[in-house]
Design brief:
With 518 residues, this protein is an alpha+beta fold. It contains 18 helices and 25 strands. The strands form eight sheets. The protein has a seven-stranded mixed sheet. Strands 3-2-1-6-15-14 form a six-stranded mixed sheet, sandwiched between helices. A two-stranded antiparallel ribbon has the order 4-25. The longest helix is centred in the C-terminal third of the chain and has 27 residues, at 376-402.
């Protein structure tokens, strides 16, 4: 038997999954690492911890596979979280930890770019909305507020590029990851001169852009020995996790949207060329040069549900642990006892600022409509619904750019919950299909790998790998309620924006809480 390994470098963990060439999962391993929030708006990771998690997950999955004589792994291909940044000195020693997409310390510089019009000019060429998530803004922050680091920095990589540099001494970045930096011209497929001039960088400080099908061979032998694979094992760069999520659920036909909610979330549609939103609300990232993913990301997905569990339902969390049941399943069961619309309680889930659709790093979460008759059950229902309402707002903006959405494919951790899947169908008033393949990012990475190795001629062949799908139809009783609440949710999100900056500035000045998220 022949196999491929798909690696998913995520925000909170790295997962390695062994697939056969038909897309069946044979074995998997998952290793986590903390997210450091030592100061307001910080969200960093330790690159060494991520590298070690990768080595451990690859080692574990190879061991679990129990390959027999004649079996072989043909290659390892990657999906990776986007928008990360690491600075290195001339000797390739890290000067920073991994500054992740969730880091909001560059908010001032993103806002300046928006106000003076420079941001829209750069967005129109790079397809990356102006926001602290993007390395463009992070570099301006480093330049102005960490000049000691900025002056020493000779190289900049993201987390996947760091992995490949450690394993192969390579200095390359696939065009999918590059298209999310805010520094890459998606029409010319090269680093953008205006963005470089703004940040003060030269092309030599950035990796060489390559296709997602680029292959590295000749791994440093000590790592190959630990993992238990040949030194010449092909490692394929793959692409960003967002674009690969669409491929992984076979949402690559026109008008077919993929909704992903994991730690964060997004809704995306594939087009055959880049499409720019005149209002700057949506991104355009490359899957490869022939497939472009247009959509909007949200900061606040499953992490908001975790916040509700940890802060509103601590007793239930402990009970679930004693009973050996999943605490999230217990909370969704509690939420299901409350009617759609949570009896008029709305929740804006902006605990980590927000990207699409409002692109406001100062945004903050809030309950609205709270009364004496509302209970914690109402609150958790409102939290779950608020996450979907926010995704739906992004969908409305997306339709202005790409046209009507024909169908929705759902993936991510939330897709395991029947309640959330039904909420998605009801709020969108559309059929929602959930493919059987939950490991969609890793699966899509292996399809990129198969094409790179000449094992398939087109990535569309993934259609035969995603397995059976279950479809959820909208419930008329529920969507009538949501029709009334959705406009209120949208209007509130706009009206509250006038005060988000004020409350965020207050928190930055007066609130000093050190957080490390495991």
């Amino acid at each position: 038997m022949d196999y491929m390994i798909g690696v998913d470098l995520g925000t909170t963990s790295t997962k390695s999954v062994l697939f056969d060439l038909k897309g069946h999962v044979i074995a998997s391993a998952n290793n986590g690492y903390p997210l450091y929030r030592d100061e307001p708006d910080m969200a960093e990771e330790d690159p060494v911890e991520i590298f070690e998690a990768l080595i451990d997950s690859l080692t574990d999955v190879v061991r679990k596979a129990e390959l027999k004589q004649g079996d072989q792994v043909l290659g390892v291909s990657f999906s990776s979280a986007m928008h990360s940044l690491i600075a290195f000195d001339k000797d390739w020693q890290p000067l920073t930890r991994v500054i992740t997409w969730a880091d909001g310390r560059a908010v001032k510089y993103a806002e300046q770019l928006k106000k003076d019009g420079t941001g829209q000019e750069i967005y129109s060429k790079t397809g990356t909305p102006i926001h602290p998530m993007a390395p463009l803004s992070k570099l301006l922050w480093l330049k102005n507020e960490r000049p000691d680091i900025y002056k020493k920095a000779a190289h900049y990589l993201g987390i996947k590029e760091y992995i490949f540099h450690r394993l192969f001494n390579a200095n390359k970045m696939d065009i999918s990851i590059a298209s999310g930096t805010g520094l890459f011209n998606i029409f010319k497929l090269q680093w953008d001169q205006q963005a470089l001039a703004l940040t003060g960088l030269s092309v030599d400080q950035l990796p060489k852009p390559v296709e997602p099908y680029e292959i590295e061979r000749g791994m440093i032998s000590e790592y190959a020995k630990v993992i238990g694979i040949p030194v010449q094992m092909p490692f394929i760069y793959g692409a960003g996790d967002g674009p690969l999520s669409n491929l992984g659920v076979n949402a690559i036909q026109p008008g077919v949207a993929a909704v992903t909610i994991g730690t964060s979330g997004a809704i995306r549609v594939v087009t055959d060329k880049p499409k720019i939103d005149p209002k700057g609300r949506t991104f355009t990232y490359a899957l490869d040069r022939d497939h472009w993913v247009v959509g909007g990301p949200v900061n606040n997905g499953g992490d908001v549900f975790r916040w509700a569990r940890d802060n509103l339902f601590d007793a239930e969390k402990s009970t679930a642990a004693l009973l050996g049941i999943d605490s999230y399943d217990l909370l969704t069961k509690i939420a299901s006892k409350v009617p759609a619309g949570a009896d008029g309680l709305l929740f804006h889930p902006y605990l980590s600022g927000e990207r699409a659709p409002i692109w406001d790093a100062n945004a903050r979460g809030s309950f609205f409509g709270l009364t004496h008759y509302h209970t914690r059950a109402h609150m958790v229902r409102a939290v779950l619904e608020g996450i979907i309402f926010n995704i739906y707002m992004v969908a409305l903006a997306l339709e202005e750019v790409v046209g009507d959405l024909k169908s929705v494919q759902a993936t991510g951790g939330f897709a395991r919950s029947a309640l959330w899947r039904q909420m998605l169908a009801d709020i969108f008033e559309q059929s929602v299909t959930v493919p059987q393949a939950f490991e969609s990012g890793a699966l899509a990475a292996t399809v990129i790998g198969q094409k790179a190795l000449g094992l398939t001629d087109k990535i569309e062949n993934i259609a035969g790998m995603v397995g059976e799908a279950k479809t959820y139809e909208p419930n008329p009783d529920n969507y009538q309620v949501y029709r009334e609440l959705t406009p209120i949710f949208i209007r509130l999100s706009r009206q509250l924006q006038t005060e988000y900056e004020n409350i965020a500035n207050f928190q930055r000045e007066h609130v000093h809480i050190k957080m490390t998220e495991e």
